[in-house]
Specification:
Elements lengths: L4 H16 L4 H9 L7 H16 L1 H8 L7 H15 L14 H11 L3 H4 L4 H11 L1 H11 L6 E4 L6 H9 L5 E4 L2 E7 L9 H4 L3 E3 L7 H4 L7 E4 L6 H9 L5 E6 L2 H14 L4 E5 L3 H5 L5 E7 L14 H4 L2 H18 L3 E11 L8 H8 L7 E9 L1 H4 L4 E8 L2
Helix pairs in contact: 1-2, 1-3, 1-5, 2-3, 4-5, 4-6, 8-9, 17-18
This protein binds S-adenosylmethionine.
Length: 404
Amino acid sequence: MILHRNLVFAVVDTLHLIFNEERYADKEISLTLKRDKRWGARDRNFIAETTYEIVRWKRLYTSIAEVKAPFSREELFKVFAVWATLKGIKLPEWPQFENTPTRRIKGKFDTLSKERVYRESIPNWLDELGVKELGEKKWEKEIEAQNQQADVILRVNTLKITVPQLKKALEQEAIYTKTSKKYPSALILEKRANVFQTQAFKKGYFEVQDASSQLVAPFLEIEPGMRIVDTCAGAGGKTLHLAALSENKGQIIALDIYAGKLRELKRRAKRAGAHNVETRHIDSTKVIKKLHNSADRVLIDAPCSGLGVLKRNPDSKWKLTEEFVENIKKTQAEILELYSKILRKDGLLVYATCSVLPSENFLQIEKFLTTEQGKKFKFIKDQSILASETGFDGFYMALLKRVE
Ligand SMILES: C[S@@+](CC[C@H](N)C(=O)[O-])C[C@H]1O[C@@H](n2cnc3c(N)ncnc32)[C@H](O)[C@@H]1O
């Protein structure tokens, strides 16, 4: 592989913003990619993948490079040199890479890799939390799996097209996918590609959605004609799936505390041809009260630590804090208490997170079931998904029935 100057500089500039200015990796990478129209697919791929990899292995690489935050550009070039050396990529003869200690890099890699916090490149507090929650053996496997690059997975929008039809349509755009029996609406890309540029995407034939996440909406046992409330809808990944399962019949009310996310949801629903979706911004408690005892199905896709989706968001290893995890658990308990009131008697509720921590998942449900409100519910079943067992995101979902 030959390293091109403008691409390497683009990576270093992007890392500078992510590491020093606390910017989000996905947003910064997509801004960088807009910088130069002459970059082709390979160039864009190099910038995106390399930046993500260096973010993912930040602790390991910066320790090998012996640099500390805030990082100067010179230091970020050293970190880049570590990445290239460990990948076996020849460094060009630029002043930035002069005196790169190749042997020392390899030696330090071998030594540091003996310790999990370096090998898996995670903060100490996160490692301690993972061990406490999952036990050492499970956590070790899980964090290793979550450090692998995520597959690109599509959810076929069955309101507009069937799985075999989309597979064929994508082949005509040189995108090759495989199906999976366990995930009936999914197409898994054989090779990464920018699917958002395809005609199929513009026509609303699919959404990008991880395979584990695709299991959540079907867990609600949707039938066409139902009244469904998606209480933490965000930009609507699961709302759109609910719309497809309801075959556009009945009503889906999508709620969130952020109006901007709901605006994006509306745009996506239009593209997907999901006509039965209505958004409501939670700007006061009245919005929830109005819906009490009214829904056949309620989805609580709760805000969480995101400790199931590190594959997709490697920078959250560095942004997440212990305090955030503690606080979000309180929010989850409050949300369960308040939003479960939206369900009518005999209706079904799903509580889901993209976390692998039992304290956000089953233990949260167990606690809820002992509260005054929770006593009106019966636990039906749950599913804990680990990235180490499936290769996809870590997720949790619990199905409850309102019996009183
Ligand atoms: C896991 S994300 C939802 C993802 C979304 N359901 C999807 O499939 O794309 C959690 C969402 O909960 C929202 N949220 C946070 N606190 C909330 C609250 N108190 N009430 C409702 N939504 C909340 C966040 O804005 C975020 O969009």
